[in-house]
Amino acid sequence: MKRLMIMGMVIMVLNACAGAPDGSPLVLDVPVSGTEPSAVHSLDLDDGDYVEGVLDSGTDAAELRLIDQEGHPVRLLLNGTAGREVFRFVAKPGMAALRVTLRGTGGYRLALTRRIAVADQHPVLQGYLSPTIAALAETVKRGGGTDAFWRDIARRGTPLVEPSMGPPGSDRVMLTFLARGARHNVRLLGGPTSRHETLERLGDSDVWFKSFVVPASTRLSYQIAPDVPDFRGTCRECRMAILAQLQADPLNRRPWPMDAPDPYNQVSLVELPGAPPQPGLEGGWTEPAGRLIGERFASRILGNTRDVVVYAPPGVDPAGKDTVLLLLFDGPDYLDRRAPVPTMLDRLTGDGRLPPIVAVFIANPTTEARERELPANPAFAAMLADELLPWLSDRMGVRPRPDLTVLAGSSYGGLAAVSAALAHPDRFGNALSLSGSFWWHPADAPPDRPEHVAGLVASRDRRPVRFFLSAGLFESGSDGEIGILESSRHLRDVLEAKGYDVVYRDYAAGHDHFAWRGALGDGLLALFGR
User: Fold this and answer.
1) DSSP sequence for 307-373
2) For residues 92 and 68, what is the distance between their CA atoms, to the nearest angstrom?
3) Is the dihedral of CA 85, 86, 92, 93 positive or negative?
4) pLDDT value at position 15?
5) For position 153, what pLDDT does the model report?
6) Using an 8 Å Cβ cutoff, are 246 and 264 in contact?
7) How far apart are the first and last CA of the chain?
8) Strand, helix or coil at 154?
9) How many whole angstroms from its chain centre is CA 502?
10) Scanning 50, 122, 252, 406, which has the fewest C-beta atoms within 10 Å of its C-beta?
11) Spatial distance between the Cα atoms of 175 and 197, rounded to a whole number of angstroms
12) Measuring CA to CA, which residue among 338, 341, 313 is closest to residue 327?
């Protein structure tokens, strides 16, 4: 087994080249601590080891990178996160050390918590379908090679798109995801199901594949993970191991975003010709024409502090009597090129499709805080109504009216938008949910009442709130569990039965910012469009 580095002398070279203070070598389950703004910790691993670790930087944001023996970055593992974060990777030659960079002075603790050698990893495979793959299987069976196939795929790009075998005029096509040359397995995340799919190897060849019949309107982003460690552990531990290897598909011609530091921080895009337009994003990303104002907002109710960014497109008066106030959760996710909401608002307000809108992008203090605050938390809703709105009025001159105020978010953020609007309809007259996690319920909920928000709606009088709900056709539940698609449709039905104003839309998409950015524009147009 090839060793990845020599201890001692190599770490001295790393420190000299990287300019970082000397750190401690990492040993399994023995945490190291530090307070310096940057430190390097050497690794002693075998090629192919599956590794899990934890970085806890308290309230300070921290960056964690794998670096090589010259101190050059190999992979960005954590990017500006705070609190306790888990990271995963598979060891490869050239990965010599971990470099921690703090954006504060509070210190950190770093530990490797799991290491699984290649010999202890086991493959899991399953079936396939596709006319092209079937023909290639016959070629391989007769002793033929795959070089001509891969030349054709390099020309066409992945995934392979073929007509479906359905009736004439069918609006469905076949997608085949491909990977080349993996040793043990290939998994797919973000494909047209809610599961981690496993690609199958074509005999003993270098071809791995998985096919799906999908609507011709499909839009999604995905990643592939070659040689994911398979080991003894809980179902969640084995499932999460995919994160160690997830990366953009090297055969796909649309990596996203283009300026990502490495393929592990990119996804690959699929946008079939029938995919619906995404309002305000025609022509791609451009620099926002308005001004982004970022501040720190402290909540007494929640006992924490978070980043809040306010954006007004050109010519929009935040204090105007007809100005819509958009409060968007998971704010940083909607400020970059993946989901450029400021660009979208510039265009939709500029051409008159939407009234003047001021957008407030609300960040989460930490990952743990998000998981605690967004799922129908009354304290979080009270913070929005009783602290954030007055703060916005004092700082930005915003004078929100309930009928022109909308809470919006995706996943847990969609759940938060709906539950907070129902809790404070005198402040929030609109809720916009993108793939809301309406399967969620409190830990003490009865087993026969798994949909908490639907139960609240059914048991209470109608409130003066309007709704836009959306979900992906690829977000259905599995193994007998209710999923986002089913619970969103059910919530729609319950809201309509109570007399609420509801707009609902399905998209041929998954749990995916690439789809959510278009659904957000659709939702704003449905609620406020002119």
Assistant:
1) EEEEEE-TT--TT-TT-EEEEEESGGGGSSTTS-HHHHHHHHHHTTSS--EEEEEE--SSHHHHHHH
2) 10
3) positive
4) 35
5) 97
6) yes
7) 66
8) helix
9) 26
10) 122
11) 13
12) 341
Per-residue pLDDT, 19: 38
Q: What is the pLDDT of residues 244-275, one digit of tens each?
A: 999 999 999 999 988 899 999 999 999 999 99
Give phi and psi for 352, each to the nearest 5.
Answer: 85, 5
Residue 189: predicted pLDDT: 96
In 3D, which of 363, 412, 368 has the Cα closest to residue 84? 368
236: left (phi over 0), alpha (psi -120 to 50) or beta: alpha
* Residue burial 461-480, b: 16+ Cβ < 10 Å; e: rest: eebebbbbbbbbbbbbeeee
d(CA 197, CA 188): 5
Strands (E), 4-134: 32-34, 38-42, 50-56, 62-67, 73-81, 84-90, 97-102, 108-116
Distance, CA of 236 to CA of 42 (rounded, Å)? 28
Within 10 angstroms of residue 19's Cβ, the number of other Cβ atoms is: 10
Residues 63, 57: contact at Cβ < 8 Å? Answer: no
**Secondary structure of 212-270 in the HEC alphabet?**
EEEECCCEEEEEEEECCCCCCCCHHHHHHHHHHCCECCCCCCCEECCCCCCHHHCEEEE
pLDDT on residue 280: 96
Q: Is 499 left (phi over 0), alpha (psi -120 to 50) or beta?
A: left
**Residue corresponding to tokens 């915003």:** 398
Q: How far apart are CA 282 and CA 398, in angstroms?
A: 29
Please classify residue 138 by burial: count the beta carbons closer than 10 Å to its beta carbon, then call 0-12 exposed, 13-18 middle and 19+ buried.
exposed
Q: pLDDT value at position 104?
A: 85
Adjacent-strand bridge partners of 385:
none
CA 361 from centroid of its chain's CA atoms: 17
SS3 463: coil
Question: Closest Cα partner for 42 from 96, 109, 111, 102?
Answer: 96
Residues of the chain with pLDDT under 50: 1-21, 124-127
Sign (positive/negative) of CA torsion 443, 444, 449, 452?
Answer: negative
Question: How many C-beta atoms lie closer than 10 Å to residue 13's C-beta?
Answer: 13
- Under 8 Å CB-to-CB from 52, ≥6 apart: which residues? 86, 87, 88, 112, 113, 114, 115, 241, 244
Burial of 296 (0-12, 13-18, 19+ CB in 10 A): exposed
Q: What is the pTM of this model?
A: 0.83
Q: Whose structure tokens read 């006992």?
A: 303
Q: Is the dihedral of CA 146, 250, 133, 118 positive or negative?
A: positive
pLDDT of residue 128: 54
